[in-house]
Task: structure prediction
Amino acid sequence: MPMRLTEFHRCVRGEFGEIKGEWILHSHVLASRGGTAEELLAQGVEPREIWWEICEDFEIPELRRLGPDD
Result:
């Protein structure tokens, strides 16, 4: 099931906070993809795939990969 972009951003902010989350989206090159999250989203890569790659790069525990509980 595709992940909505709003859900993707909520997961990033929930895990890293607003400032660090924005930095990660704009500056962190994903090891397995060779581009930033922002670049990959612009290329049409599914947000869920990018989120899982971010989780891998930053060693986010599996329980937190589902995003924050609201």
Notes: The chain has one domain: 5-58. Residues 5-58 form one domain. The helical segments are 5-16, 18-27, 37-42, 47-57. DSSP finds four helices and no strands in the chain.
